[in-house]
Amino acid sequence: xxxxxxxxxxxxxxxxxxxxxxxxxxxxxxxxxxxxxxxxxxxxxxxxxxxxxxxxxxxxxxxxxxxxxxxxxxxxxxxxxxxxxxxxxxxxxxxxxxxxxxxxxxxxxxxxxxxxxxxxxxxxxxxxxxxxxxxxxxxxxxxxxxxxxxxxxxxxxxxxxxxxxxxxxxxxxxxxxxxxxxxxxxxxxxxxxxxxxxxxxxxxxxxxxxxxxxxxxxxxxxxxxxxxxxxxxxxxxxxxxxxxxxxxxxxxxxxxxxxxxxxx
Length: 264
Description:
By secondary structure, the protein is an alpha+beta fold. It has helices at about 5-25, 75-105, 105-115, 180-200, 205-215; strands spanning about 45, 50-60, 60-70, 120-130, 135-145, 150-160, 225, 230-235, 250-255. The protein folds into 2 domains: about 45-165, Fervidobacterium nodosum Rt17-B1 like (Heat Shock Protein 90, 2-Layer Sandwich), CATH 3.30.565.40; about 170-255, Actin, Chain A, domain 4, CATH 3.90.640.
């Protein structure tokens, strides 16, 4: 073999060695945020429990919210995508609240609240749930604008392993009557739960409120989260019963819906 051929062969070996080294080198992990870092959209501060916390105090109002720095999904990219979806949704809800405040917090109203040592308030707290192939966040949202009771409602976020949002309809086969089936399953469970809470028979008006609150519509059944064995539907105060009755978390076993659920 000539010197030229030997040098050519050595060059090829060097290139291959470099390429193998590049392929063998593991991807550097995404740099984890550290306490004190700010989030992308709301600018909340990261605390030691790996939650961002955002607080805004203005004339006559206070807003407080917590949200995760990372969603426990298989890849950093999926985790970041899901976390940004949550933060974006919360920012939207805060924007709606502040738009309403612009109409409600007149100069006179702010003066009245300050004299009382009171304020309007918006708060968000979440619970998260793991299920095979999904991770869910159920936010309880409390809004106090000086009424007889604070308003309470939910925001829910369900993610697949790629960090994409999962809608309720995505769980079922195309064309399946999933709203009717969920409604039919939820109604008797809410009735039984309400009877247990009130320790009394329910009046026709109360039963009608439950019927309307569990109607087979996207609006009535919009809040949900997933566990391995059930789809949980969430009903905030006033939707299916009086404010005093509280909220309802109704678990519908997946086994009851197996004929219309998509297979994993």
